[in-house]
What we know:
- Helices cover about 75% and strands about 0% of the residues.
- The protein is mainly α.
- The protein has a single domain, classed as Arp2/3 complex 21 kDa subunit ARPC3.
- Helix 1 packs antiparallel against helix 2, helix 2 crosses helix 5 and helix 5 (about 80-100) runs antiparallel to helix 6 (about 105-135).
- The longest helix has 29 residues, at about 105-135.
Amino acid sequence: MQLKSKDVAAIAIYASLYAATSLLTAYIPTGPYFIQFRPAIAIPMIAAIVATPLIAGLSAAIGTFIASIIRYGTPLLTIFSGTPANFMGFYIMGLTYKVLRRKNVNWIIALIVSSCLGLIVGSAIIALGLWFLASAMLVEGLEKFINLEFAFTASFLLVFAPAPVALVIVVAILKILKNMGKVRL
Length: 185
C-alpha cells in the first residue's frame, strides 16, 4: 500500500501532537513501574477512529519514539517496547473499530471495545519488550522487569490508568467533530 501525501501529512500531525502531549505527563513519577503515565493516548485513539488503522499505528509509533528519545535520551527502550506496542495497539484499535462499525455496533461501544483490545495488545508488547531488555540484554534500571508478572502488572496498570480520561477526551472531541460535519460516527 502506497501512502498518499495527505496520509503522510496526517501521520506527521498526529505523531507531533502525540509526542508533544506525551511529554506533558512524561515526568510524573510512577513509583516502581518506570512506564510513563500517558493520557495523551487520546491523540492516536482519535486517529484510529477518524483515519485509517495504518495512519493511527504509524503516527502512534513515531510519536512515542520521539517522546521517548526526548524523555530518556536513547531509543533503546522504545525500540523494544513503546514503538512496536503503539504501532500494533493503535493499528488493532483502528481495525477493530472499523469492523465493529461495519457490523452496526454503536460508535461508543465500538470505541470502548476497540480501545480495550488495542490497549491490551499494546500493554502485552510493552511488558514483553521490557522483560526482554531486563533479562536478555540486562539493561540497567530494569531489573524488576525480569519478573514477567511484574512486567505485565506494570504495563497494564500504567497503560490502562489514563484510559478513562482519554476516552472522555476522545468522545468529547469526536462529538464536536461530528457536530461540525467533519466526521461520521
